[in-house]
Structures are given as structure tokens and as C-alpha cells.
Specification:
Elements lengths: L4 E6 L2 E4 L2 E14 L2 E10 L2 E10 L3 E12 L4 H4 L3 E8 L2 E4 L2 E15 L7 E10 L2 E10 L4 E13 L4 E16 H8 L9 E10 L3
Antiparallel strand pairs: 1-3, 2-3, 3-4, 4-5, 5-6, 6-7, 6-8, 7-9, 8-9, 9-10, 10-11, 11-12, 12-13, 13-14
Length: about 210
Amino acid sequence: FQGGGAAAALAVTGDIGGVGLRSIQPVHLTVDDQGSTAQGFFAIGEGEAAFGWRQAGSDSFAASATLRDLPASAFAAFSGVRADGLISGSAPQWSVGAGLTGEAQHVATGFRVRGRIRRPVDLRISGRVAHEALRAELTATSDDGLSASGEISARVATQAFPVRIASAGGTARWEVEGPADAVWALVGGPDQSVSGSLSGQGEARFGPG
């Protein structure tokens, strides 16, 4: 490298949440006077995950993550929640000045928190943050009658270095109909459970936090 720098190519094997993990291609890392980059492509269980990162100087970066049929059980390593199902989606983000812009689109099929949901749930989650505004939407359906949707709109303050998103207040809206345990497994505490059925809609405003 002109002016100094370093590069590495790494092979990775192991497990995450009890699911096998290996790099399909070597993980490439570079650091030079132009910035830093990282790129990886992994097999996780029967699914795949790819990520990329590029930082130029101290005030510009772009990052991305793409998942295809990633076992939900792999996330137990981070959340402590044992779950089944497959997760696919993408989440690019990049810096805009000192702030942050990004979006996410994820689908979870056959999702089930073990011991808390009778039947698997299909989830669709999308979100975007840009121009000091955040909007997120979620839908959930299941074969035993669950039909739920929700959206959040909020003013936010973002920071790219380090990455930070802080809410300045906003509005949440939701509609739900179906088994109470399926809903509570998504929004309630892991040591709590409810039974019965739910039907209704609502709206709430929240402050900074």
C-alpha cells in the first residue's frame, strides 16, 4: 500500500447459537490511508449471510447486511430466546454528513418462540430512517387466525460515529386480532404468558427516549 496499510483474508468456522457457521469465501479486511473495508460471505445452517463495510476517513461510511433463510435459532446467541423459523432480508445503511440514513426489509417465515407460541407466525418487518425521521412497519399472520399490524413514526436524532439513533418522540398505531399468546410472545417479557384471544386497535404517542 502506498503510504502504509494492511490487508488480511480470514477463513472462519464455528457455530452461533448451536448452528454451524463457516465462511463461504475468505473474509477480506483492508486498512489504508483511504479508510477501511470489510467483506464476508457465510453459510449459517442451511442459510447464508453476507456483510460489507467501507469507511472513508472519519466522516463517511456505508454498510450492508443480507440474510437468506437464516435459522432463527442462531439469534439465541444474542437474545437468549430459543426460536424456530427462517429469516431473510437486507439492511443497508450509510452516513450523511454526521448523521445516518438506512433501511431494513426482513421476513421471518415459520417463526416460533419455543414454549410460547402454539403455531408458527409469519412476520414482515420494514423500516427506514432518513432526514431525522424514522418509520417502521410490522405485520404478523398465522394459520390459527392471528392477523396483526403496527407502524411507528418518530422524529429521531442520528449519529454515524459511533452509530446511534435516539427517538425525539412519535406515534405508534396497531391493529390485532387472534390468539393472545401469539401476540404476547412478540411483545411481552420472556417470563410471562397470557391466554385467550385479542381483537382491537389503538394509537399511542411517546416522548423522547
